[in-house]
Amino acid sequence: MTGMLIGLAVIAVIIIAVVVMYNGLIKARTYTEESWSQIDVQLKRRNDLIPNLVNTVKGYATHEKETLSRVVQLRNQLVDQTSNPNPTTDQREKMMETSNQITDSLKSIFALSENYPDLKANQEFTKLMEELTNTENKIAYSRQLFNSSVASYNIKLQSFPSNLIAKMGNFQQVNYLQVPEEETKAPSVSFDK
Amino acid sequence: MLYQQIASNKRKTIYVMIGFAILVLFIGAAVGYVFYNSAMAGVVMAAVIAAIYMGMMIANSTNVVMGMNHATEVNESSYPELWHIVEDMALVAKIPMPKVYIVDDPSPNAFATGNSPKNAAVAVTTGILSRLNREELEGVIGHEVSHIRNYDIRLSTIALALSSAIAMLVNLGMNSFWWGGGRRRSNDDNDNGGLEIILMLLSLVLVILGPIATTIAQLALSRNREYLADASSVELTRNPLGLINALRKISTSEPMKAADPSSAALYISDPFKKKRSMAHLFDTHPPIEDRIQRLEKM
């Protein structure tokens, strides 16, 4: 009788442990998806802002057609890339690559604004500059958040005993987003210097 | 490490509350005995005043503290850069967006307050906005947001409420002593003079030292938390240099005018720039040089 009770208790404890670990894995995985969508929101927001920027700059900086068309082209490329609601790791990497290129060309647009005092004095332009700086920084910070949530998810996948549950539930490892060399130093971008 | 720190902060809040509450009642008894000739009356008065202050603080600490420091709430459209930085830091620290306040003061400084991350606020001076660049401001806001995430704000809010209650109590007693005075003297003809004099002296000592003791306790609590918030800030921004430069700029500036003395411990750096006391007992913050040194090692 007591033997059976002990057996039942052990089974109950095991079941509870399995449920808790399974839920923990689901939670961690959902969190990585959520933090990816944070990045996605900011990428799309920047895609919306770039045409406004180009329109504002066009009127003042007539000699900079090349820089402007490059940013528009990259932006359109990113719009295509972000249209997939469930991107694979490869697609994510490609999106981040385009995003980095956009960051660079935005930097050069803000740098060339130094040559056009009228543009720099334009209120619409200063507003856009702050908005874009904001999205740039948010992209950097949500990438940091994504990587830290991926780290805690992957640790769960690999450590015992939750790795057993992960195998049974077919949980897949998520890859980190690679950070380009220069950005590892300081994630924050400031155009206003 | 961080979670342990948060748990220990929540636990310490309870110890601080109990310790402070006992001290408040003792000081109340002393004030009652010295100024009103009845220890019991003092205890009741202390309990009522402390209850009112605590209630006020717990119900809406943000408004009270912001009011004491002459801060006004702002929104995204009036201070876009500041707003966006607070948003960024709240995002990485995984806390809800706090309210944002501005203190109109040319001296650069900042503080955070509230009961919990859900109900928190950060305030910065106009001076900090004009002197710091974006990276430096990020370091400062990262520091304040860390105070919120680590529950330092709850601990310091409760400590602030109780030390204000003690200050209020002693002031009340002093006032009635000067203006309603003489009540005490009429009893001096009593025979049991010896015991009464000792009690009287003890009470006076308590009345004088009480506020000092609470200040020391409040400050010790606050000093240790600054190092942790500095480290957490760097964890959020990944950019120690921003905070280092911000601290340098803040340390070489003039003192604040708008700050409230009892909330000095809340600020990122001592708003009054007092000379360092020998034993560092009255410092609200660790020396800035020490903080910079620790950041440089990161």
From TrEMBL, chain A:
| Cellular localization per UniProt | Membrane
> What Pfam families does the entry give?
LemA
| Alphabetic keyword roster | Membrane, Transmembrane, Transmembrane helix
Q: In which domain of life is the source organism classified?
A: Bacteria
Q: Topology in the membrane?
A: Single-pass membrane protein
Q: Which GO terms describe its cellular component?
A: membrane
- Signal peptide range equals none
List all membrane-crossing ranges. Answer: 6-25
The text of the family note is: Belongs to the LemA family.
Q: What is the designated name of this protein?
A: LemA family protein
Q: Which organism is it from?
A: Pediococcus stilesii
What high-level taxonomic lineage is stated for the organism?
Bacteria, Bacillati, Bacillota, Bacilli, Lactobacillales
UniProtKB/TrEMBL annotation, chain B:
The cellular location(s) given in this protein's UniProt record come to: Cell membrane
Which superkingdom is the protein from?
A: Bacteria
E.C. numbers: 3.4.24.-
Any idea which UniProt keywords this protein has?
Cell membrane, Hydrolase, Membrane, Metal-binding, Metalloprotease, Protease, Stress response, Transmembrane, Transmembrane helix, Zinc
Instruction: Locate the active site.
Output: E144
Q: What is its main location?
A: membrane
Q: Name one GO biological process term.
A: proteolysis
Q: Its family?
A: Belongs to the peptidase M48B family.
What name appears for this protein in its UniProt entry?
Protease HtpX homolog
Q: Which InterPro entries match?
A: HtpX_protease, Pept_M48_protease_HtpX, Peptidase_M48
- Cofactor detail note: Binds 1 zinc ion per subunit.
Q: One GO CC annotation, please?
A: plasma membrane
Question: A single Pfam family, by name?
Answer: Peptidase_M48
Q: Which organism is it from?
A: Pediococcus stilesii
Q: Which residues bind Zn(2+)?
A: H143, H147, E226
| Membrane topology label | Multi-pass membrane protein
The residues covered by the Peptidase M48 domain are: 80-297
What would be the name of the gene that encodes this protein? htpX
Q: Which cofactor does it need?
A: Zn(2+)
**Any idea which GO molecular function terms this record carries?**
metalloendopeptidase activity; zinc ion binding
Bilayer-spanning residue ranges: 12-33, 39-59, 158-178, 198-221
Is Transferase given among the entry's keywords?
no
